[in-house]
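To whoever picks this up:

The parser on our side crashed when reading a file containing two proteins. I've narrowed it down to the boundary between the first structure block and the second sequence. Both blocks are reproduced below exactly, byte for byte. First block:
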Amino acid sequence: MKYIVSYTKPHNHFVDIEFIADSINSDKILLQLPAWRPGRYELGNFAKNIQKFGVFDENGKALIFQKKTKDSWEILTKGVTKIHVKYNYYAVDLNAGSTFLDATQLYMNPVNCCVFIPERINEKCEMEIVIPKEYRIAIGAQYAPLSSGKGIEIRFKDFHELADSPFIASASLQHNKFVCEGVEFNFWFQGECRPDWDKLNKDFVKFCEHQLKMMKKAPFAAYHFLFQILPQKMYHGVEHVTSTVIALGPGYNLMKGDLYENLLGVSCHELFHAWNIKTIRPVEMQPYDYTKENYSKLGYVCEGVTTYYGDYLLFRSGVFNEEQYFGTFNERLQKHFDNAGRFNMSVADSSFDTWLDGYTPGIPNRKTNIYDEGNLLAFITDMFIRKNTKNKYSLDDVMRHLNEEFALKGKGYSDQDYKGLVEHYANSSFDEIFTNYFNGIRDYEPLLIEAMDYVGCELVKQNPAKYHEHALGIKVSEVGGICKVAAVYPDSVADKAGMSIGDDIVVINNIQVKADNSGTNFSEWCNYFSGKKLDLTITSNLITKQLSIDPQPGQFYKTIKIKKQDQPAEDQIKNFELWSNNNFK
């Protein structure tokens, strides 16, 4: 089976794709385009980007076919030994999991746009990529130049490997590399930016070395960081076994401040994914089924544990200082406490339901976030193991075990496998925590407090600077001249007064509200009227309402932080230093 990728008018964004398969020995075959891509637990509907589609035999004669589903075609092949499929794909989206074509680059995630024959998914295949002679290519697979000099040829062991091999082809790629623990790591930057190679090498060596030593056996011989740098704000990463694609922006901020911290954070996160989810997989995803949803309740491991290590290993390896790490941890804490969905759906069930509503907020307070909730539960699990074994074992041992006994043996793990490994290394029952907090909706604030205490830290709650958040129980979005209610705390005074998400706040105590630079924004006037009764005019679905609210300061939304205890015991200091690889100070 062979793929040929080319294009003629890059400004139109259409990639031409040919799929050739011989050894056809049936009267009809089914051709499938993936319905989703690994790394995003929702359907992708990639077939909507196909404009032209035709199928021919070895002599160029058109074959009869019909669409069977939104992304599959049945082809009549009686008397045919070879098929040649020709189609194009509209490649206009530019993010870490898309396919994009313009005059500067061809960027492809084959899982978006390469058809396959399901029963032959494990057969060898090859791809020719026809590109201008001056183009370089960034890809995590081995390749050879075409004899024409206009492109490359790649051989894959199966469709899974092809689908997991994104590439960027461009004349403007910036490249550098370093070697860590005998493994070559490559940087590829596409887009307007000025990489500081010395700074990148210094920081990446630290966390790459830490991950390699922690996991002991890498699933790759070499690794490639493919960066798509955009001129606007962007933050997105997608994992692969031998590479990751990371989209960030704006390019002028890349090497400084928050954006550089984001670059480090997402890079560490995606590298850890080369083990966790790409090779260490839930049994439901071993192997991937590209034709439909791959339901699993293990998002708290796949994404939660990866989110935990993505931040934590930067701290442990010395890339992040304490302030930087605690800053990321505080973000997870804040999202947890601000989301009342944690009282309605467990993180396990929320993982299953990502396939239902994807990555959109969905209806208010319905579910939790597998990344944030899973991260906090991973921290709790790590402390559970460390506390029960006096730091002899940790979550590191669980992940190594999953790699050695499941991933390297081609087996998927179940939730009971994960629970059993935690119990094995902790030498203690995990039943109560697993039932009530992973698979249940019990408030795990007490668990967080206990876990923090083990390493000499504590949970701090404070009133936020915005009065309306802690006194009324609402969060607002003040953009484009409109003050819109973004969140309502359940059973708060605002909730009881009849305020809803999506309402527009128009007047506060006879003063018109405008979300602009005129000095009439709601947040500031609400702070000004603190302690007083508030008369509000709101519009809800174009209907104007008058609300009267008596604030209750300090009762609702809180600012949540982790901080070190002022007078920790000696064993707490020791625990912190063994966990973090940093001095408690």
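<<boundary where parser fails>>
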Amino acid sequence: MEKIKLLINNNFNLDEKDKILLDNICVNFDKLKEDKIVTIINNLIKFRLDFDSIIAYLAFELNYKFDESVDADILKVYNTLMSNFTISEGMSKQEQADVLRKMFIAMSNDVRVIVIRLYIMLYEISNYKLPLAQKQHQNLIDIRDIYAPLAERLGLNSLKSELEDYCLKYLNHKTYENLAKSVMLQKDENQKQIELTTKKLEEILKELNLKNATIMARQKHFSSIYKKIKSKGYSLANIYDLIAVRVIVDTVEECYAVLGKIHGIYKPMEGRFKDYIASPKPNGYQSLHTTIIAENDRPLEIQIRTNEMHKLAEFGVFAHWLYKEKKNKLSELDKKISWLREIMESSKDLTGEEFVDTLRTNLCEGQIYVQTPKGKVLEFIEGATVLDFAYSIHSDIGNACVGAKINGNIKPLSTKMKNGDIIEIITSQNSKGPSKDWLKIVKTSSAKSKINSYFKHQLREENVKLGLNMLEQAIKARGYSPNKLLVDKYLNLEQFKYVFNTKDELFASIGYGSVPVNNICNKICQLYEQDHKDEIVSNVINQSNNSLTIKRNKDGILVDGDSGMLIRYAGCCSPVFGEEIKGYISRGRGVTIHRKDCPNLKYLENERLIDAVWDDNIKSRTTSVLVKILSSKSDKFLVTLTQELVSAGYRILGLDSKENAQDKITTTAKIEVHRQEDLTKIINIIKDINCVEDVFRVGQ
């Protein structure tokens, strides 16, 4: 009891009220639980959970009942922990699913409970003994398939790895033992190498005058080794990040400075450099990873990151509120786990097996982060389509969705989104609405639920009205009057390849989405045109006769149009100041500026393209360009590239280097430029490096 009190007193500034509460709870002290409580509280303190969370956990373990005077925040955590989420033997799959659903809903209502529950699970499985009981075996499977992926989804990578290590130890004991023996044989040699590398890194930090930098080392978790062996068919000798040395500095600039020095001393392994600073992982992880050949001629991974990046790597999404004021921290994390609540809410009508499958899919799939045109970041499971995006905004947006723009390019509904995409949904009042095929397109449980709801509540009469309206609009878009075409002569049901008994069935099928409106419209228009060849007249608007004035825009661009237009730059070609440019009038989004030679211009509506030139009074515009470099293998290439560009005064924003099938190295460099001349100089500098075979700007 005293050990627990001392632990809490030493880590929190308790007032008199807190001390009395702690004493009252510990009256119920259970000596048998002391080791468990101390271990878990230590973990919660390391995780930097607040006093309210820890006191609620302590009361939960000691079966203490709070009175009404206790702080509401403590009571909230306590009540969630006290809820009965036990899965008993003999329960049906539906009953088990109901328990899981209730537990996840409760946990998502207070995110701190997730951390507490995960650490309780970690302690319990750490004390398992072989052979396992049936309940223990099932518990490990649930942890491996549901709770460990949940921890990873939240960015709690260390906790996730510890859970997975125990699952591997007990569910695949022989494999675990063989791995442990193999790794232990290398322990002494690895430790010597870490000491040698650490000394050299200390010299680098001293040379760069980075007094606040720190160095640490880690051993790769057995579960991570096993996954890599199993998924990629590697042997232990091919796993290069078995041990890793980590360098933590203050700024991003210092990260790249340390990287350059390391590559100047050690030979980097080709294709083993990862720039997660320029291109973060889906859960927000950032760091530079490089694998070098160490003194013992074996690979050694070195990770370089800032303190802020390290906090995110250690605490995941919780890092965003652990270091803020109490009033902000819960609301910020609530946003981060909205996907968890969404799964719970959208799976109410699923069977037990369907719910568990949905939960596993959403947790085990990777995550991607995409943006709205206004910069709002939304999270989806890997494989989600633009239709998932549309339904995530609102059911009505999803139901009216006819396509999307991804990074400015029009794409169909089935297009899968990628990390970092900017998505703009295209809707139409004439949309045929959801079809049953959409259920095969969408990936998220929320979108599936909304589509099913639409079919469940939509009346046939509404489908008839919608289908008729869609057909009328399609006919109008072709330049004809619906009153002249929607007559019995052209609505002869036998002429269509689809089987309809009545006109209403035809219209309902269009409205329901089972029949493309254009197929019907094309057939009707074809028949009408055969009867009225001499009467058809096309109205062509000659926009070239319109007089347009050139006015200056505040962004430093002269646009052949209104000076009040919003200006944005196309991400597909990233125009640089001084290059020939062209404007495209977007619907509701002002003018998008492309390079004049941008390959995507040919896919845009020609009548919306307008002339645009740079304002000569503006000296430059800072932007970033991607340059792709093809080179032969060279130990010093990345060092030389970095040194040459930096010495020429250019700022490197990111690097990514990979080995291709022809044993060549493809490097993508993200570089800050101000004018077109900068880009020309950069390409010439890179071309002069001996091992470079080709260099070009991405998008050309």
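After patching the parser it read the second block fine. Residues 324-332, 536-552 have pLDDT under 50 and may be disordered. The chain is about 45% helix and 15% strand.
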